[in-house]
Design a protein that fits this description.
alpha/beta, Metallo-beta-lactamase, Chain A, 7-stranded mixed beta sheet, 7 helices, globular
Length: about 290
């Protein structure tokens, strides 16, 4: 399983000179299974470049992808109108979320393309699915979601495939016993953990408390306690330039040495010798 980061910023895009190394696009992650299956998590502005890459790669062949949304705040969906593959009728996309019913998920996604927000509708084939508590299996990948502590809700994802374990836990704030327990269950033993580190520990406990984000300190603690192999600080604050993120990574390494900062273009290959357990299919129904 290969993981590539296309957008790593939180809250709003920041195309500024000081962000050149880590990048200014908002959240978008591509996972590519060894069998070629394309999985996308979140549709921030980073999805625009992903779309261009897929068009070059498929060279006229139909594109199919599975898109998992953590939640519907703008920084996680604002790239949808700029994803060119959505405008090709031969392409197919499957949208997933545990936050709402399939019909509501469709309304949210397709509503962005309607008057007065955007003049062109999607042409690609689309299906929408609400995730439940049971993991689903997509072409050999076991995918589990968990609800995180964030205003209006957010989902974290654990994807086990090709012998590796990837976890995204973004837009999460510590302090809720139920959500904290769910988060630790989600990340346990992950080969690669992308963790919301938008704020400093001082901010997350002070002026930004209640805003739904975490810090490098919490990420390092969770990674160490949960047997994570590599921690990636994710969802950088708009005010955090490259030098500032460098400082966060340096501090985080004292808590958890195998830590890096998320940067656009980073790729990871996960091929742990671990194998997933028994995988069960979801009983949820498709909405079309």
């Amino acid at each position: 399983m290969k993981v590539r980061l296309w957008g790593v910023r939180g809250s709003t895009p920041t195309p500024e000179l000081g962000n050149g190394r880590y990048g200014g696009n908002t959240a978008c992650i591509e996972l590519r299974l060894d069998n070629g299956t394309v999985i996308i998590i979140d549709c921030g502005t980073g999805i625009r470049a992903l779309g261009k890459s897929l068009i070059r790669e498929f060279a006229g062949r139909a594109i199919q992808a599975h898109i998992f949304l953590t939640h519907f705040h703008w920084d996680h969906i604002q790239g949808i109108p700029s994803f060119v593959p959505f405008y090709n009728k031969d392409n197919s996309f499957f949208f997933y979320s545990p936050l709402c019913r399939a019909a509501e998920l469709r309304r949210v996604i397709e509503g962005m393309m309607r008057r007065p927000y955007f003049p062109v509708a999607m042409a690609a084939k689309r299906r929408f699915l609400r995730l439940g508590k049971t993991p689903i299996n997509i072409d050999g990948a076991a995918i589990t979601s968990a609800l995180l502590h964030h205003p209006q809700g957010c989902a974290g994802y654990r994807i086990e495939a090709d012998g590796g374990v990837f976890v995204l836990a973004t837009d999460t704030e510590p302090g809720s016993r139920v959500h904290d327990r769910a988060l630790r269950n989600l990340v346990k033993g992950a080969d690669l953990l992308l963790f919301d580190s938008q704020y400093t520990p001082q901010q997350s406990k002070g002026e930004k408390k209640g805003w739904g984000h975490s810090s490098w300190q919490e990420g390092g603690r969770i990674a160490r306690q949960s047997g994570v192999k590599r921690l990636v600080l994710f969802h950088h604050d708009p005010e955090s330039d490259d030098a500032f993120v460098d400082g966060l990574v340096s501090r985080a390494r004292k808590e958890f040495p195998n830590t890096i900062g998320a940067a656009e273009g980073l790729e990871f290959r996960l091929n742990s010798i671990r194998r997933t357990g028994r995988q069960r299919k979801s009983s949820a129904q498709w909405y079309s």
